[in-house]
Predict the structure.
Amino acid sequence: MIRIYQTADYEAMSRRAAHIIAAEVYRNPACVLGLATGSTPVGAYKCLSEMVAKGDLSFKEVKSVNLDEYKGLAPTHDQSYRYFMEDNLFNHVDIDLANTNVPNGLAEDAEAECKRYDELVASLGYADLQLLGLGHNGHIGFNEPDDHFTKETHVVSLAQSTIDANARFFASADEVPRQALTMGVGCIMAARRVLLIASGEGKADALYAAFCGPITPECPASILQLHNDVVVVADKAALSKLTAAGVAVCE
Ligand code: F6R
């Protein structure tokens, strides 16, 4: 089932997403959270950090698995996804860093690292809640548009559109790593619940293709139509194409 919540703007999307994540932690304090990076979840992570600071929420027993990491970036590089997670969430909540997992972008044998990561996520029983952002090209994690879906964690060559989109975080597009390690759609689909968040008009086409288009690896997020528990939280602008097409949304 797919439930779509429409919010007025990015801030409201962030609060709603944070509440859904908090509800998962209240339901099971030792849950496994699948986490995402990028600009979209920053506000939700801030809300979660505030809840923890107020004493309303604890991540003490939570375990986490992140979706992806740039190949070749050290965890200390300020654009690595490990650094992002510490900067935006882990350093502001009471999570045990030993319980947080991000693929190792520096692994000498990247294929072995992918296998290790798949086994790790499986050994944790997969995510109870997987948070996802959405690429402009329909990617989830770094599963880029392709002629097939890849089930396992794998090394991926980033699409030019992804390199261009992520160049804003680097000094120039030349500095964006060309490859990444990403969970495949197997781990994502094995999550018990999926929470996809999106904000802004720039995501409207991708959101429409993901949930109203055909299920195709050309729009990797479209595979979520086959998941039985997906919640989308997106603002009006991101949902504009879906609502124009008459898709029902909750407020
Ligand atoms: C990041 C990730 C990506 C992003 C997507 C959207 O871990 O998995 O799929 O969610 O590229 O990025 P933003 O939120 O920056 O638009």
Remarks:
- The mean pLDDT is 97.
- The beta strands are 2-7, 32-35, 63-66, 68-70, 100-101, 129-132, 154-157, 179-182, 193-198, 230-235.
- The helical segments are 10-27, 42-53, 81-88, 110-123, 160-166, 185-190, 204-212, 236-244.
